[in-house]
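Much of our argument rests on the idea that a fold can be written as discrete symbols. The record that follows shows the chain in one-letter code together with its fold in token form.
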Amino acid sequence: MNEPLFAQSTKAFAMTCRVEVNILTSAEIVWRLLTDAKGFSHWNSTVTGIDGEIREGERLRLHVPGTNRIFTPKVSGVIPGRVMTWSDGIAGLFKGVRTFELRPRNDASTDFVMEERFSGVMFALTKWMLPDFRPIFETYASDLKREAERIARERVDGSPAVRDT
């Protein structure tokens, strides 16, 4: 699983998008990247900035390229180094729930899984207006893989592992 694998399923009132990729480093390094709001836009080209702190119970302000809209997901279900969920919207009307999961492997690599489920009556009425999530999800996973593996290589080489922001 060197390249991100994307899957999508759509029903009348819901759609689920999922991407998976194996990252050749520890879950600790991947988790640190996923929970560093200030540094997020330095490695992730699908995000221009995050206001707030990525931790349990926090409401984030997420800025993405190509729109002035600000997404405001709430962070929940945090199990450090393993899983967290970002959710926004109103259940039954339009809700998005994104789950991040890290699965450490015996070979010291980590499987990264990101899944988002959109649902609700408004979803059914507006789904044709949503973007193609494949390139967004594949880019997100590729950016994360590239940066996490860069940090791991620098640790092995003895070089500084953290970029100046």
